[in-house]
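Before going further, learn to read the protein records used in this course. A complete example follows; check for yourself that the lines match position by position.
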Amino acid sequence: MLELKKVQKMYGGRRGVTGVNLTVGPGEIVGLFGENGAGKTTLLKCILGYFKYQGEITLDGEPINTKNIHRLAFATCEHSFFPNMSPADHKVFYQMNFPKFNEKRFDGLMEFFELPKHRALKQFSVGQKNQFEVILALSQGADYILMDEPFAGNDVFNREDFYKVLLGILEPNETIILSTHLLEEVESFIGRAILLRKGSLAGDVTTEELEESGKSLMDYVKQTYNYETDRVIKALSKMTDEE
């Protein structure tokens, strides 16, 4: 169980995340949503210990430290691999450092994405780099896999096929926390949606609850954010009037 209690991160006087209380259990597939600057990346990096923060974050009741950090994996569009090394080199490195490294999954995903095994990663396209980042996170052997906009630069067909593959390979105890702007695209993939707004938790709902209420994920987000359907018309009207 991953638990966050009153987690707060400030950048000078600016709020990153404020007072976030959250519990994510084994086997959940969670979508983390919010507008730009809502605090999604900041929250993920607090969980991983990349940022100092106020509050408490625990994994099965224990603080996250060098003893249990291997239970967390991170796929980020900023990339965390070694650019001068090849995928084959990374495979050897991960096998040496992560006892639960899943070689079969690694090889299968490399074949699925048709990535070259012996080419330096700095020579990959942006989409290929993001694919490999996800492969490493999924093959590490972690219980909680955090993903921050992992599919940037990938076409819609690659993304759609990957969601299907991911659902097919995940073990019952593996947890995914996926930060993305692609709400409608991942709605059928996730089981729970968490919404951040201006650094605070704005919504937390299961897709089952949405189905029972007859709402789509987009409907829920717009309602939670009090989205004004005529905001574009108003903006255009003001700009036209100014001219």
